[in-house]
Amino acid sequence: MTDVRQESLASLLGGRGGALDASLPPLAFVAGWLLWGHSIGAGAIAAVVCGVVIGVVRFVRGQKPRAVVFSVLLVVAAALIALYTGRVEDFFLIQLLSNVASALAWAGSIAVRWPLLGVVVGTLLGQKTRWRRDPALLRAYSIASWPWVGQYVLRVAVFTPLWLDAQVFWLATLRAALSWPLQIVCILVSGWVLRKALPSGHPGFRHPQVPESAS
């Protein structure tokens, strides 16, 4: 019988495919901007086309292209900001601010004992808030949420000076390097931490152990 504690958190959260899909449209934006005479509009069109193509491929394969749809919407919003300000580095402003907000949200969720990793996984598994009534699982989710805080803080620390200095090439390069590769590392690390934080004999995150008095 398979040990459910060893179940992959990466597969539940979308794994490499979803994270890679989300990183390609921004790369297409920069490629379009470079190839068509630093045109922000051309970059935006390239990004949207890239997202649509990936979405169609995922749909044909029977997969849900949610990450692609969300990424395309972010690309459109980022392009509109860059078009409004006339500064191509502002295409990355939403990415920068979203990482600041995410770091604060994940850290705050741990502080108030509603770790977002538990909220996300519990929602995906249809557990609602049952996971939170399991003291061991609540503690494990709190510990395993810290790698997520770390990835957002790292991006903010890298992107902020580059954005302030209008280093578009390095923003694009490190945007790719710190997107799906870092996301995959974060998922793998948080999954490992989650398993290690659960006590021996616990059935895993799919099976919260709710005390009778709390059920």
From TrEMBL:
One family from Pfam that matches here is: DUF3159
Q: Which domain of life is it from?
A: Bacteria
Q: Where is the chain membrane-spanning? A: 33-60, 67-84, 104-125, 146-164, 176-194
Does this entry carry the keyword rRNA-binding? no
> Which key words are in the record?
Membrane, Transmembrane, Transmembrane helix
Q: What is this protein called?
A: DUF3159 domain-containing protein
Which source organism does the UniProt entry give? Lentzea guizhouensis
